[in-house]
Write a structure and sequence with these properties.
Layout: E1 2-7, E2 14-15, H1 17-30, H2 38-42, H3 49-55, H4 62-76, E3 82-83, H5 87-94, E4 99-103, H6 108-117, E5 126-128, H7 141-150, E6 152-161, H8 164-173, E7 176-180, H9 187-193, E8 196-198, H10 201-215
Parallel strand pairs: 1-4, 1-6, 4-5, 6-7, 7-8
Antiparallel strand pairs: 2-3
Helix pairs in contact: 1-4, 3-4, 5-10
């Protein structure tokens, strides 16, 4: 069986804060409401959009709010998203030791467009987004679907992410979860839910490479 390294996107490989905040502001203003404080929105990143809107007090026709968010996000998501430091180096290094995938609660089609725009899509065998599964993270389904596509065994695979949603999904999928402290998760929480943590994605890949050597 092949080895796989799966990556989350927001807070793990990319910084899309400005695009996310724009999308939420667009939706709230479209429905005549004042947008929440940015920190309240960003604290929820990693959850599906419908869960985020509900947590921000939206009770009526949440699907319409999600559609409004996507309408606004679509206008700016490429120009307002950038790679995190050493993310490109991490992905390229990871290709030398494993097959790669992305597992995200973002819309998969947007994720592919972003990765293409940022020059990284060609390195990934699979991108699993919100619309590709019945149950998003922290459920293990997205991880297991990515592994199935790659043909990799869970016990030989890793999930790199910045929140406990990623780490819980990894644990329940039987995958080694490596947390990165460069994203949205609180460091103290991440250290409790991850099997191991590193500062950023390149350090995470280097740790995984060293672990693979030990296991050989």
């Amino acid at each position: 069986m092949k080895r796989a390294i799966l990556f989350d996107l927001d807070g793990t490989l990319i910084d899309s804060n400005d695009a996310i905040l724009y999308g939420f502001s667009y939706a709230f203003e479209k429905f005549g409401r004042r947008p929440p404080e940015p920190e309240k929105i960003l604290a929820l990143v990693g959850h599906p959009l419908d869960v985020m809107f509900k947590a921000l007090g939206v009770r009526e026709d949440v699907d319409a709010w999600v559609a409004a968010y996507k309408e606004g996000y679509r206008q700016v998501f490429k120009e307002k998203t950038r790679l995190l430091p050493q993310a490109a180096e991490a992905v390229k290094e990871a290709t030398t030791i494993a097959r790669l995938g992305v597992v995200t609660t973002k819309t998969g089609s947007y994720s592919k467009e972003l990765l293409e725009h940022l020059g990284l899509l060609r390195y990934f065998d699979v991108v699993v987004g919100k619309e590709d599964v019945h149950y998003p993270k922290p459920h293990p389904e997205p991880i297991l679907k990515a592994l199935h596509h790659i043909g990799a065994a869970p016990q030989k695979s890793f999930m790199v992410g910045d929140t406990c949603l990623d780490m819980e999904a990894a644990r329940d999928a039987g995958v080694y979860g490596v947390g990165v402290e460069c994203g949205y998760g609180e460091e103290w929480q991440l250290r409790q839910c991850a099997r191991h943590t590193e500062k950023g994605p390149l350090e995470a890949v280097e740790f995984i490479a060293s672990l693979m050597v030990k296991r050989m």
